[in-house]
Amino acid sequence: MGRYFSVKFWFISGEITFKTAVIMLCFFGLMIIAGIVLKSILKAKKQSFDHLLKGIINRITTLLFYMGAIGLMITFFMYEGANFVSYKFWFLVWCAVTLYWAVIIVKAALKIPLKRSEIEKRKNYEKYLPKKK
Question: What is the spatial distance between Cα 124 and Cα 103, in angstroms, rounded to a whole number?
Fold first, then answer.
C-alpha cells in the first residue's frame, strides 16, 4: 500500500499487459459509444427534452466522448511503453479531471428544479405585463 504514495511509483513508465490493455480499451470505447448514442438520442427526440435537460445531456455526452478518447490515448501510450506519456500519473490526472467534470455536471443537474420554478414564476409574471402592439 505504501508504494502508491511514493513519487517513483507514479512517475515511472506504466507498461501494461495485453489483457489489461484490452479491458481498458473496452471501457474507454464504451464511454465513446455511450456518448455518441446519447447525442444521437438527443438529436432524434428534440421535442421531448426541455432546454435545461438538453444542456445537462450535452455536458454528459461531451464528458463521455472526450474523456473516453483521452483514456484511449493514455492506454495506447501505456501499452507501447512510451516514455513520459505512459506515466501512471497521467491516468491519475485523467481520473481527477473526470471526477471534477462529473461533479460540475451533477451540481448543474441539481439546480434544474430551481431554474424551472424561476422560469414558471417569470411566465406567470409576464402574462400580466402589457404586450407590445
Answer: 33
Task: Residue 35: count other Cβ atoms within 10 Å of its Cβ.
Answer: 20
What amino acid is encoded at 85 in this protein? V
Distance CA 16, CA 13 (A): 9
**In this structure, what DSSP letter does residue 12 have?**
S
CB 71 within 8 A of CB 95: no
Pull the grid cell for residue 117.
420554478
pTM greater than 0.70 (yes/no)? yes
Phi and psi for 47 in degrees, rounded to 5? -80, -20
Q: Is 87 helix (H, G, I), strand (E, B) or coil?
A: strand
3-state secondary structure of 13: strand
Residues 56-106 have pLDDT tens digits of: 999 999 999 999 999 999 888 888 888 777 777 888 899 999 999 999 999
